[in-house]
Amino acid sequence: MTKLTSSMPCVLLTGFAPFAGESINPSWQTVSKLDDSLIAKHRVITLELPCEFHRSLAILYQAIEQHHPVLVLCVGQAGGRCEISIERIAINIDDARIDDNAGNQPIDTPVIANAPAAYFTNLPIKRMLLALHQAEIPAAISNTAGTYVCNHVMYGLLHHINQHEPQINGGFVHVPYLPSQAVHHNGAPSMSEDTLLSALKVMINEAISAKQDIKVAAGTTH
Q: Considering the domain 10-209 in this protein, what is its CATH number?
């Protein structure tokens, strides 16, 4: 068994606190299980982010500065989605339909003033997608991370990478409800915790191992 040490290259894996009346968040519920694990010879460090605009980014930046990860993968809840959603792009806008957990509700406000309109992830998203399908895990490329705290964090992460640490690979993944949540939302799809854990391991391994992405069709018509 490989002994984990602080000198190992590390992956920073984040999830969110519950929000919108939920008692749990599937992102943190699963991410937390991988803390201090070893994937592709990289130590996994996990972090729970508050579902709050701005404070979430401050905490994320602090963790990046402390741990110097080679990969940052942020995970969030997307209740209503039926598969793992690998996000392609983050846009520079906060437009909150509901308050965050601190009572903030920014509307038509830039995530970061005077910054680019959008950033694409630098993760090998097509390879990650193919690896998930080979593992028989439902997944798709998503072209919208929304305009709530998830997009806020993804945009802030990619802006930080672009401006300060281009050696870091980073991106965002949305996951469905857990079954224990879906029973309270009539007709909502769900995914088991075991499947979510397997998916995270597959994606992290692929993100670390792949040197460049592949070109396969994974777009949408609407």
A: 3.40.630.20
Residues 6+ apart with CB under 8 A from 108: 93, 94, 95
> Catalytic site residue 87?
yes
How much is the average pLDDT of 22-36? Answer: 98
Q: Which of 87, 159, 160, 206 is catalytic?
A: 87
Give the per-residue pLDDT at 1. 57
How many other CB atoms are found less than 10 A from the CB of residue 199?
25
- Which residue out of 42, 152, 160, 174 is catalytically annotated? 174
Q: Are 31 and 200 in contact (CB under 8 A)?
A: yes
User: pTM of this prediction?
Assistant: 0.97
Instruction: Report residue 89 as tokens.
Output: 């792009």
**83, 150, 152, 160: the active-site residue:** 150
Q: What is the largest CA-CA distance in the chain?
A: 51
The yes-or-no answer on residue 150 being catalytic is yes
pLDDT tens digits for 114-137?
999 999 999 999 999 999 999 999
Domain residue limits, the chain? 10-209
